[in-house]
């Protein structure tokens, strides 16, 4: 197992980003899992009932991500935080995007909590990972793309030692480190903002990691402290 360090700069923390990262090793991911599908459908029904008569955009957690984007000069029309996109898809379009078991697990928890969750194949990461401001010279290959796209300086993102963006804001993940059924060693992101207290983020982190272990096997440890 290769070494992996995760660091967050003070400048990003000062924006109000709250981040807890985990490493999950020994995963046996699958395209689908019957037991998880039963659990997922039950949880989605609870979420649907919770939001009856309410507007998902009024959630202060989602508003916190919009505020973060405003602080770094990104349009919330063009850069929608992943949990807001998932909530819209599920609550407004009655759709849940099936990818594979592990990704479906964290997407479920993201819809439930409003937090931004993502994961990456550590075997495809170059060296360590840093949550820092971008300089504009980073390599960014979004999901579904094969060639790099330009990235603005002054955003925050998760970037490895090879200067590769693995997650832009909490909006876009990337093709090179995406989770597949062959991924065994996982870097897991659980991100909140000024409108989420630390216990809320910690509880969500534990919940998603425990579910991954339950349905995909392996073991996990946290890579940083959340204060």
Quick structural overview:
35% of the residues lie in helices and 19% in strands. It contains six helices and nine strands, in the order E-H-E-H-H-H-H-E-E-E-E-E-E-H-E.
Tell me what you see in this structure.
35% of the residues lie in helices and 19% in strands. It contains six helices and nine strands, in the order E-H-E-H-H-H-H-E-E-E-E-E-E-H-E. It has a five-stranded mixed beta sheet with strand order 1-4-5-6-7. A four-stranded antiparallel beta sheet has the order 3-8-2-9. Strand 5 and strand 6 (165-168) form a beta hairpin. The two termini are 28 Å apart.
Judged by helices, strands and strand pairing, the structural class is alpha+beta
Poorly predicted ranges (pLDDT <50, ≥5 residues)?
none
Shape: globular
Tell me roughly what share of residues is in helical segments.
25-40%
Largest sheet strand order? 1-4-5-6-7
Order of helices and strands: EHEHHHHEEEEEEHE
Give me the secondary-structure topology:
Layout: E1 6-8, H1 10-15, E2 18-25, H2 34-50, H3 60-71, H4 82-93, H5 101-113, E3 116-121, E4 129-133, E5 156-160, E6 165-168, E7 172-173, E8 186-192, H6 198-216, E9 219-222
Parallel strand pairs: 1-4
Antiparallel strand pairs: 2-8, 2-9, 3-8, 4-5, 5-6, 6-7
Helix pairs in contact: 2-5, 4-5, 5-6
List the defining traits of the structure above:
single chain; 227 residues; alpha+beta; five-stranded mixed sheet; four-stranded antiparallel sheet; 6 helices; 9 strands; 35% helix
